[in-house]
């Protein structure tokens, strides 16, 4: 075993190697003798390593102490605690200390900390204070701990106010770094540790950094099982050792963090502040990754760090998948979750605030490590930085402080400390950086001398041109020899190009001159295929993709003769790149003999390109109408062909000739002369190019200076123009081929600037501020990108314009820019963008077909403080920066968008141009509660499924239930094609039909994207595009519902059907092919099965309708079917059956009093199978759904959590949980112990359903006051909408501890189910409030030991005084025959409630009534005739319904907050609810009827009108014998359109679809004749038999009233509601108001009907 020893603080106490456990045991027994060794670890690591370690220690002990009775023989104890940051607390520390004390550990104890940084920090701190300090040994197991936290002796715990605030320096006796532990480390933790490795390399060790840059893919895959084993020479080990070396060196020189040691905090000053806000969702290393980039930006802004180094750092961090900005989606996601749980949002102020509790701050300045370049910091300690500067890097927006360039000079940083105050250099080991004084920073503003006139004069060179940089890189790489490229653009695009060229071994690159010069050593065209499995990743760099496609064809084929080894070079890009066209180039190259394949979509990246060595050359044709980059690509490589090449450009018109000329120009500079053919007669240039054979040569000087980007150059020049100062730009002049180089001469000069241009330099001097002339008309076609700059300058040009349309300045202020139509399709619609944003300054503009007019205004009239939206477009941001230098307070909203072409624009603006900028945090849009969903605004619901599966029928029901219109795809298709679908297929064939079908689908998704139910054709899934479109739709939050039916049923149905064209193949084959497609496209499944287990008997009438209503209401989010969150208690019943169907007939009895039903999926068993199959589970659910609409809790309980589902089948569990979501199940139980990826999958796709995150301790060892339960709470609260924690009670006192726990976490906003199992835990079940699991006496077994029924719990609550008995009454007369006592008493009894219901008969409100109302045990009252109005004066308040109806039928006592009157009496009227509910019971989807009719005009008629109004009736007809009474009602409901009828049977508008009679039955008749004159005659055309209406008769005797009889005979399609049903429904509503519990309807109804029929 080889062990590498590294010294720290003068001792060789760091041991690095593989499989060190034996070594550890021997070393400790030999050199740290003790009576007790205590190993402390976490529950992730214990199962992996504890047992073998203990065994090794036991053996080693035996070897050292062969005599078992030797008193010196030590003990070996182990203790395991929960993992994660939540354990690193004072409580966690106390728990370990209690363990040590219990085991009588003494001062000679040696504690071994086995684990990640959490264990190391916590256990280290325990050791530091236990018995005033005991020895500790660190055995880090995470990469982060190995390279960082275990080294240096810093220990700490967290406090609620911040991380690591309480701790000590406590040096371990040993640090054993055993890389073998890494094998089990999760990938995310590996990257997390690599962040610290990157940090250490960045501050101290450039070689290590280069290793990191080059090996990201190797390092990220080195732990996967398929990778070769790690060894000491592996890059990972090299990096671990160099990191440890560096940290050991630093710690040794500065053990107590006086100066130098502060350097390892690079990235941490800001990183820790971020971490404090997003813990535990984002890991430490991830936070410091963002911190490093931001702190590096701080260094760049201070002029300390160059853009090249910053770019390297950022790209290195990103290449490990680590976040680099605050807008990384991991951070945003974490913020969202934390805010949702009531936590703090991330803002610049909260971050600065968090930074201010940093231990290392120095007064007002915050300490930040400033990087000077990779491998070196500015000084040997952190530098004090002002808040203002930090704010600038943290802020997403910038404010430009208007002022004259060069007048702002930033305060300098404090002088650097370059030597440690009292360092003893002889003590050092490891590399020591040579700190030298940074060269005079190039950042100081350079006001060059005094120019002729005494205006300020700025000289600078702007970033290199992107187009030239990319060309120069390819040319230099293809050269033989070394070429120095100067002024190269440092951007992501060029970086991508360099990385790809390096991977092709085309060249090597090194930076010199602090990043000013790139040294390219070219291979002369000898390129090789990258190793198999690597793809060249080009991001969204279009130029690189186009150029490299040809470059890859000239890669040399390798020597292997093995044909199967035919290697190809593969190039790919990001999602956007994969859509950008490349076909014309590929076609041309294929014609020229290349072999290029499309790996994904035709015409786009990724490509696979065969290495040819050389192209054959000769004649080549290329369509150049789309992009000039295709032409340049071929030109650049053509010299390397076997024969001279002639390239002919075809296509309608050659685009961007300038860029082609640019390529030819550069090729000339590198020694290849391209000639362009001329027409022999006319002499005109032709689109034919001749390229000779040859090799590129490095220019004579050995270097090539890349011209500055001419578009970028326009901004500083425009600033000079607008501020009346002077600016000289090097590297851009009259010889430039870039169109935008003309901007100075052709735009600024005519506006009154003095422009001096040499071949390579441009100087602009502006006229005095405010004196710019309008440009008049200018064609900017050759310099389109500069038009935005022109607009900014034109905004203040007020003199000399083109006239007309001039707003104010009589035409002198008009600048008319033309020839820029293409700018509408750039990063954004730039013409629109300029018009919209200029308007914010008060500038008027007018759009032209190919440009715009800008009407300049005097500076003094411009609006200050405008906040400019930049559309993520760099040019918009920089153009408005120009205007901002003269208009005070202008804010540019997205500062980062400049990164594309001028990453340090804001720094340059301040440091070089001398214009101050300030960071601004924009107010976050005020979060209003999301508007409640309305049917019109939800994404349309798409139904798919086989023909014959009932799509149309289900669609109709769903549409009705959601009050949405239904669109039938087939009908729409026929309408569009103006012929029946069948004819279309017969005439044009299936292929054409599918084409037309997808076109229509895409169109409908746009035109009918919201507020529809759309039933799609069965074959829509046959086309891949349609499948993609559907999947995308579902992913974006829409519902795609697969209506599923048994195959046999579908076959049977289709065999008899003729309307649609036949398939031409067996139905079964079609079904089998499409089923997986339906499955993949749909995010929901609606089971429309005909034969259900349990038989048809279980399906009451209306069951399917009720299920459609529930399902679509829930999945659409319109009416999530959840337990009301305001219920004071809620219960769910656990169904513990292998097959639930036997329970279905008695489900209503079983669910008495519960709010939800739990399906214990783990207990379901088909005969003979081990696990329930998804098909079985679906059919069980479908069956259950036909008998109850209560929300379902879907639980797959694993064995270790007390269930029956195997622990080792998470994939199967995952399948079932996903299935549940697809089936529209309301609550999904997710165990916290499931794999995190699965948990994530469920929580992100749960839609309107809720997750119950559960943890069960069956051992009884997890206590409610320990860290484990707390850790489980945190874990569950992260995942779940509801937290479920189940412990086990050993004694009744465990229930009190549970209650204290619940009280402690109560502030957290998540509802919690907390219960102790076992009989001793029953009290916890009684006291639990949310979703208490209950059983029922009729169930075969209880789901858990100690489980009780609802009535058990209520009785127990009553006995312990938490549910006092109340008295309820009926007031009115006569009431002796009322069903109400039966109704309510039955309900109370069924639920185990101790209440009573009695009669208080009387025709008026008496003293007795008042006494009852005042008695403390009064629970509520029903009120009937004649007291419905008289009772009002004795009440305190009325509900809106009671007020509108003008009568009270229910009295509800409520708590009030006033001490004088603690109880208020509220009057309500539930009659209208009874009407609505009774109607919905027979017609679930009924909403907003067009017309409805009410018969009668008494009190009940008022309730009926109110009910119809609530239902959304558009029109109510009212008929009453006495017209005047009817009119009185219209006056009582002024907002309801009521039409009083004189006569029944003829309607002023549509016939009513709801008819409610409130007339006593014996006052109506369906016959005419003598003796019946006094009655209301119901004509036979009262009910329109052509519609499906609902008729309600409020009279409840006799059972069949004349109205109901009429309906039965003349309108059998109508649903009939007898009065007793309304009575039951309104009683239900009363019951619910009074008790807060759902009424056990079935039991109550049975009793009431018995009474009724008696
Ligand atoms: N003291 C210091 O100088 C210092 C420096 C940096 C960080 N820290 C602290 O370190 C902590 C972070 O350390 P961390 O990232 O190691 O976190 P950690 O200890 O929580 O470990 C990360 C996760 O990986 C698991 N794990 C560790 N090793 C494993 C292995 N070999 N196989 C499988 N799983 C394994 C752990 O159980 C845990 O779930 C933070 O609290 C931070 O403040 C301290
Ligand atoms: Zn750290």
UniProtKB/TrEMBL annotation:
Its main location: cytoplasm. NAD(+) binds at residues 42-44, 85-88, 116-118, 121, 141-142, 163, 181-184, 192. Its EC number is 4.2.3.4, 2.5.1.19, 2.7.1.71, 4.2.1.10. Zn(2+) binds at residues 196, 268, 284. Pathway: Metabolic intermediate biosynthesis; chorismate biosynthesis; chorismate from D-erythrose 4-phosphate and phosphoenolpyruvate: step 6/7; Metabolic intermediate biosynthesis; chorismate biosynthesis; chorismate from D-erythrose 4-phosphate and phosphoenolpyruvate: step 4/7; Metabolic intermediate biosynthesis; chorismate biosynthesis; chorismate from D-erythrose 4-phosphate and phosphoenolpyruvate: step 3/7; Metabolic intermediate biosynthesis; chorismate biosynthesis; chorismate from D-erythrose 4-phosphate and phosphoenolpyruvate: step 2/7. One of its GO terms (biological process) is aromatic amino acid family biosynthetic process. This is Pentafunctional AROM polypeptide. It comes from Pisolithus tinctorius Marx 270.
């Amino acid at each position: 075993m080889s062990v590498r020893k590294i010294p720290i603080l003068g001792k060789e106490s760091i041991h690095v190697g593989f499989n060190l456990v034996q070594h550890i045991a021997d070393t400790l027994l030999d050199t740290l003798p003790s009576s007790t060794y205590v190993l402390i670890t976490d529950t992730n690591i214990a199962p992996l390593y504890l047992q073998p370690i203990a065994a090794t220690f036991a053996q080693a002990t035996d070897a050292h102490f062969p005599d078992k009775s030797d008193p010196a023989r030590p003990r070996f104890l182990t203790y395991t605690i929960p993992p994660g940051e939540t354990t690193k607390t004072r409580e966690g520390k106390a728990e370990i200390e209690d363990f040590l004390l219990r085991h009588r550990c003494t001062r000679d104890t040696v504690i071994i900390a086995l684990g990640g940084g959490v264990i190391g920090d916590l256990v280290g701190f325990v050791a530091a204070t236990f018995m005033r300090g005991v020895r500790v040994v660190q055995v880090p197991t995470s990469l982060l701990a190995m390279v960082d936290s275990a080294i240096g002796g810093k220990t700490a715990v967290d406090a609620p106010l911040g991380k690591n605030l309480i701790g000590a320096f406590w040096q371990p006796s040993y640090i054993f770094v055993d890389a073998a532990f890494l094998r089990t480390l999760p990938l995310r933790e590996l990257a997390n540790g690599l962040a610290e490795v990157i940090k250490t390399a960045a501050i101290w060790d450039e070689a290590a950094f280069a290793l990191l840059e080059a090996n990201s893919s190797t390092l990220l895959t080195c732990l996967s099982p398929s990778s070769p084993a790690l060894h000491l020479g592996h890059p990972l080990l090299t990096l671990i050792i160099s990191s440890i070396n560096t940290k050991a060196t630093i710690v040794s020189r500065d053990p107590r963090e006086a100066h130098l040691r502060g350097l390892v905090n690079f990235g941490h000053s800001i990183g820790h502040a971020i971490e404090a806000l997003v813990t535990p969702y984002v890991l430490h290393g991830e936070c410091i990754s963002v911190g490093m980039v931001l702190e590096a930006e701080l260094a760049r802004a201070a002029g300390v760090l160059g853009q090249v180094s910053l770019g390297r750092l950022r790209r290195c961090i990103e290449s490990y998948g680590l976040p680099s900005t605050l807008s990384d989606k991991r951070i945003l996601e974490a913020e969202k979750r934390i805010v949702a749980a009531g936590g703090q949002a991330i803002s610049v102020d909260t971050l600065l605030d968090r930074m201010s509790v940093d231990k290392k701050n120095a007064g007002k300045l915050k300490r930040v490590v400033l990087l000077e370049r990779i491998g070196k910091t500015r000084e040997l300690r952190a530098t004090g930085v002002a808040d203002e500067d930090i704010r600038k890097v943290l802020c997403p927006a910038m404010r430009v402080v208007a002022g004259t360039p060069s007048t702002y000079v930033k305060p300098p940083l404090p002088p650097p400390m370059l030597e440690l105050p009292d360092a003893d250099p002889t003590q050092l080991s490891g590399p020591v950086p040579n700190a030298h004084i940074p060269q005079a920073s190039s950042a100081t503003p350079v006001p060059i001398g005094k120019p002729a006139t005494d205006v300020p004069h700025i000289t600078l060179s702007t970033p290199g041109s992107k187009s030239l940089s990319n060309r120069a890189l390819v040319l230099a790489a293809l050269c033989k020899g070394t070429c120095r490229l100067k002024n190269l653009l440092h951007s992501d695009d060029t970086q991508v190009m360099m990385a790809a060229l390096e991977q092709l071994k085309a060249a090597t690159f090194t930076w010199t001159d602090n990043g000013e010069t790139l040294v390219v050593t070219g291979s002369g065209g000898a390129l090789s295929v990258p190793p198999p499995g690597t793809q060249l990743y080009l991001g969204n760099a279009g130029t690189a993709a186009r150029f490299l496609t040809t470059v890859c064809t000239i890669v040399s084929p390798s020597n292997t003769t093995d044909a199967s080894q035919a290697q190809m070079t593969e190039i790919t890009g990001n999602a956007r790149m994969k859509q950008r066209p490349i076909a014309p180039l590929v076609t041309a190259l294929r014609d020229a003999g290349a072999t290029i394949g499309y790996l994904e979509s035709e015409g786009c990246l990724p490509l696979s390109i065969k290495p040819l060595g050389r192209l054959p050359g000769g004649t080549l044709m290329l369509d150049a109408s789309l992009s000039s980059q295709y032409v340049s690509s071929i030109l650049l490589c053509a010299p390397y062909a076997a024969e001279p090449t002639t390239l002919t450009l075809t296509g309608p018109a050659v685009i961007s000739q300038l860029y082609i000329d640019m390529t030819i120009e550069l090729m000339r500079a590198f020694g290849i002369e391209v000639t362009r053919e001329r027409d022999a007669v006319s002499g005109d240039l032709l689109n034919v190019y001749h390229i000779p054979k040859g090799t590129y040569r490095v220019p004579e000087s050995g270097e090539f200076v890349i011209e500055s980007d001419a578009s970028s150059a326009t901004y500083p020049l425009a600033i000079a123009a607008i501020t009346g100062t002077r600016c000289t730009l090097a590297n851009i002049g009259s010889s430039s081929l870039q169109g935008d180089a003309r901007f100075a001469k052709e735009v600024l000069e005519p506006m009154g600037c003095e422009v001096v241009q040499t071949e390579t330099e441009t100087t602009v001097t502006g006229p005095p501020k405010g004196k710019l002339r309008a440009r008049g008309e200018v064609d900017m076609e050759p310099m389109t990108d500069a038009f935005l700059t022109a607009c900014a300058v034109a905004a203040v040009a007020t003199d000399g314009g083109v006239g007309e349309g001039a707003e104010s300045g009589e035409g002198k202020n008009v600048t008319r820019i033309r020839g820029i139509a293409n700018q509408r399709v750039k990063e954004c619609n730039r013409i629109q963008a300029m018009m919209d944003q200029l308007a914010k300054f008060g500038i008027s503009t007018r759009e032209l077909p190919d440009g715009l007019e800008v009407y300049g205004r005097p500076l003094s009239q411009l609006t200050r403080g405008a906040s400019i939206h930049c559309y993520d477009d760099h040019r918009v941001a920089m153009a408005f920066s120009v205007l901002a230098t003269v208009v005070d307070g202008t804010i540019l909203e997205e500062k980062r968008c400049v990164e594309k072409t001028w990453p340090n624009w804001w720094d340059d603006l301040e440091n070089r141009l001398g214009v101050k900028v300030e960071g601004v945090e924009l107010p976050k849009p005020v979060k209003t509660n999301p508007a409640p969903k309305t049917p019109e605004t939800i994404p349309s619901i798409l139904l798919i499924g086989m023909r014959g599966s009932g799509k149309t029928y289900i669609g109709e029901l769903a549409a009705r239930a959601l009050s949405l219109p239904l669109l039938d795809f087939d009908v729409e298709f026929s309408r569009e094609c103006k012929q029946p679908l069948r004819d279309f297929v017969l005439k044009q064939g299936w292929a054409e039909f599918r084409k037309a079908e997808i076109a229509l689908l895409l169109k409908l998704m746009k035109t009918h994207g919201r507020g529809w139910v759309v039933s799609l054709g069965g074959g829509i899934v046959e086309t891949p595009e349609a499948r993609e479109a559907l999947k995308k739709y579902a992913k974006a939050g829409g519902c795609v519902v697969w209506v599923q039916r048994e195959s046999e049923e579908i076959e049977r149905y289709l065999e008899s059907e003729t309307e649609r064209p036949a398939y031409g193949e067996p139905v079964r084959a079609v079904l089998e092919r499409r089923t997986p497609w339906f499955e993949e496209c749909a995010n929901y499944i609606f089971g429309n099965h005909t034969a259900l287990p349990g038989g048809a008997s279980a399906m009451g009438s209306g069951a399917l309708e009720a299920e459609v209503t529930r399902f679509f209401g829930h999945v659409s989010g319109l009416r999530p079917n959840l337990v009301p969150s305001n219920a004071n208690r809620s219960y769910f019943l656990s169904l513990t059956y292998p097959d639930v169907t036997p329970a279905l007939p008695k489900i209503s009895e079983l669910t008495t009093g519960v709010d939800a039903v739990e399906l214990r999926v783990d207990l379901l068993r088909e005969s003979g199978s081990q696990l329930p199959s998804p098909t079985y589970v679906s059919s069980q659910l479908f069956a259950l759904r036909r008998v109850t609409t209560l929300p379902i809790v879907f639980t797959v309980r694993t064995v270790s959590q007390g269930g029956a589902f195997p622990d080792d089948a998470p994939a199967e569990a995952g399948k079932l949980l996903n299935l549940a979501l697809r089936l529209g199940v309301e609550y999904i139980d997710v165990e916290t112990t499931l794999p995190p990826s699965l948990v994530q999958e469920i929580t992100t796709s749960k839609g309107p359903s809720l997750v119950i995150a559960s943890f069960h301790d069956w051992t009884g060892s997890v206590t409610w006051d320990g860290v484990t339960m707390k850790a489980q709470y945190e874990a569950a609260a992260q995942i779940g909408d509801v937290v479920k924690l189940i412990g086990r009670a050993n004694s009744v006192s465990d229930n009190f501890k549970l209650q204290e726990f619940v009280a402690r976490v109560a502030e957290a906003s998540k509802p919690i189910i907390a219960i102790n199992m076992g009989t001793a835990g029953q009290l916890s079940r009684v006291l639990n409030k949310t979703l208490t699991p209950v059983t029922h006496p009729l169930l075969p077994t209880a789901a858990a030991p100690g489980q009780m029924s609802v009535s058990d719990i209520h009785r127990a609550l009553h006995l312990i005084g938490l549910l006092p008995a109340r008295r309820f009454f009926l007031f009115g007369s006569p009431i002796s025959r009322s069903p109400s006592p039966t109704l309510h008493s039955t309900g109370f009894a069924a639920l185990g409630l101790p209440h009573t219901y009695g009669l208080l008969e009387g025709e008026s409100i008496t003293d007795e009534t008042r006494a009852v109302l005042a008695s403390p045990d009064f629970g509520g009252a029903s009120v009937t005739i004649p007291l419905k109005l008289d009772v009002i004066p004795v009440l305190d308040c009325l509900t809106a319904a009671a007020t509108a109806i003008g009568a009270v039928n229910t009295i509800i006592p409520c708590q009030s907050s006033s001490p004088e009157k603690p109880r208020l009496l509220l009057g309500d009227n539930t009659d209208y609810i009874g009407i609505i509910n009774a109607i919905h019971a027979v017609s679930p989807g009924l909403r907003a009827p067009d017309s409805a009719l009410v018969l009668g005009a008494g009190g009940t008629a008022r309730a009926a009108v109110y009910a119809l109004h609530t239902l959304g009736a558009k029109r109510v007809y009212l008929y009453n014998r006495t017209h005047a009474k009817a009119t009185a009602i219209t006056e009582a409901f002024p907002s309801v359109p009521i039409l009083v009828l004189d006569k029944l049977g003829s309607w002023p508008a549509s016939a009513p679809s709801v008819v409610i009679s409130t007339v006593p039955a014996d006052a109506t008749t369906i016959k005419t004749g003598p003796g019946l004159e006094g009655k209301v005659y119901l004509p036979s055309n009262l009910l329109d038999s052509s519609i499906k209406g609902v008729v309600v008769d409020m009279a409840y005797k006799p059972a069949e009233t004349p109205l109901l009889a009429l309906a039965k005979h003349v309108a059998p399609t109508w649903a009939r509601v007898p009065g007793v049903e309304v009575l039951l429904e309104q009683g239900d509503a009363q019951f619910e108001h009074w008790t807060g519990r759902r009424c056990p309807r079935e039991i109550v109804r049975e009793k009431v009907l018995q009474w009724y029929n008696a």
